[in-house]
Write a structure and sequence with these properties.
About 30% of the residues lie in helices and about 20% in strands. It is α/β, with parallel strands linked by helices. The chain folds into 2 domains: about 300 residues, Rossmann fold, CATH 3.40.50.1820; about 110 residues, no CATH class. Helix 3 packs across helix 4, helix 5 packs antiparallel against helix 11 and helix 6 runs antiparallel to helix 8. The two termini are about 40 Å apart. The N terminus is likely disordered.
Amino acid sequence: MKYSLIASFAALALAAALPAAAQRFPPPLYPSTEPARTCESLTDVELADATVESATLETAGPAGPPYCQATVAATHPPANDRITIWVALPTQSWNGRFLGTGGGGFSGGSPRPLPAAVREGFAAAATDTGHEGASGSFALGADGALDWMLIRDNAYLGIHAMTRVGKELTASFYDRQPKYSYFRGCSTGGRQGLMQVQRYPDDYDGVLSGAPAINWDRLHVAQMWGQLVLLEAGHFVRPCAFRLAQARAVEACDLQDGVADGVIPEPRQCPFDPAELLGADSGDCGPITEADIAVLRKIHEGPRRHDGSFLWYGLARGTDFLPLNQTAGDPIDGAPMRITLDWFRYFLARDPDFDWAGLTQASYEQYWDQSVEEFGRVFGTDRTDLSGFRDSDGKAIVWHGWNDPLIYAQGTVDWFEGVENRMDDTGDFLRLFMAPGARHCRDMPGITPENPFAALVRWVEDGVPPDTLYAARRNDDGEVLQSRPICRYPKSAVYSGDGDPGDAASFECREEVAPLPP
C-alpha cells in the first residue's frame, strides 16, 4: 500500500474543534505550578502494585519546555504481568490538569505523544498495556493457549493502571491533585477512552474519542469480509476498479449538501448502485464486469450469514475500498490487513501460520461466533448504560469520519443510538459528531477538525456543550482556505444557499441532507 495502515491506526485524535480565534491551550488553573519535589526523588514514591524505576529530566522538543519523565512498572498480583507506564510532568507552567493518552491497533500506547502534551501544559501519561510493539502475538502464550492476563491488560486494565499511577505521581510531584483529568485518543485510543467511560466512570472528567474501535470483537472479523467475498467469488477485483467505484459514488452524491466539494455528507442517504458501472472503463483494469459488480455490492452490504441474515455493517458509499480489500500480485490475489490477520492468527485460530486463503463462508461464520462469545465481554466497548459516567458529571465527545475505511462508522452510530434509546439525557454528557469525507483519525482529505479537544475542555470546565465542531482546510502559512461546521449527530452541514460556500457561516445543520438534482 502507498500509506501505512499501522500508522493510520496509531494516529491520535489530537486536533480540535473551535474557531481559530479560540485559545488553543487551556489556561493554568493554579496560581503557582512549581514542583514540590525534585524529579529524581520520584523513585522514592511508594505506589500500590507499581514501582517507579526511573525519573529523568527531558525536554519537549528542540525548544520545548523541560519535564520530568517517570518510568513505572505496574502489575496485578498474583499475576506476573508487567505494564510499563510513562508519566510526563512539566517542571514549569503545569496547567493543573492530567491527560491520559491511548494507542493504536494492538499497541496500547507509547511515550511518543507525551512531549506534545507537555507543550500544552499537561501532566500526561502513556502505557504499553503490558506488551511491546504492534503485533497481536502477545495474546498467545508459548504453550499455544491464550494469555488472558495480557489480553485483559490490553483490553482495559492497562489504561486504568496508567490513570491511577499517573494521577498519583502528578499529585506527589506538585503536592496537589490535578483539578481536571482528560483522556484523548483515536482508533484503539478511542476505544480505550470509552472503555474508561464504561468500566471506570470516575477516572476522567472528559474523554475525546475519535474513530473508536468499540466493536472490537466484531470489527476485526468484519474487516476480513471483503477478502472472503473475493475468495468465494473466485474473482479478485483489481485496485483500479475499486478506485473507479469509489469515485463514481462520490460523483453521484457529492451535491447532497449543495456544494461540489468531492465529499458525500451522509453516505447512508447516497443511492448509488455499483450496477451503474457495468461496462465503464476503469483504465488499466478494463471495463467493469458483472463479476466486479457482484463483489462491490457484497462489500457495501457487509458481512452476512449464508442465509443472508445481518452480521455487521458494510463499506459506506464513497469510501476507499483498498485498505481492507486490497488485491495485488500476478496472478492477482487478496491481501488482508496485518491487524486483521493477527486477530485470526493469535486470537481465533491460535496458529501463527494460519492461512486466511482457506477461509470459507462456513468457517467465517464459526470464527464470527467464536470472536463475539470469547472476546465480546473483554474487548467489546459497546455498553449502553453510561449512568455511572453521567452521575460522576463526566463529559465525552465522540467523532468519526463517515468514510473511515478501517473502522466502519456505522458501528459507532449504532452504539450511540443504543445509548440514546436507553438514556433520555444522553446529550447532557455524550455527543457524537460525524465528519463527512473523513477517513481514519487524522487521515482526512481537505477540511479537518481544528480542535475538538478544546471543545471538550470548554464543556467540562465552562459548562458549554458543543453543537458543532469547527473544521478547516489551511495553506502552509496557516491561512484558512475553506471552513465548515461538523454538526452534532444526527445532523449534517448543508449549504444555506447564501454566502460563500467556502465559509462555515454559509452552512446549516439539518437532519435531512438536500435532495440530489434530477
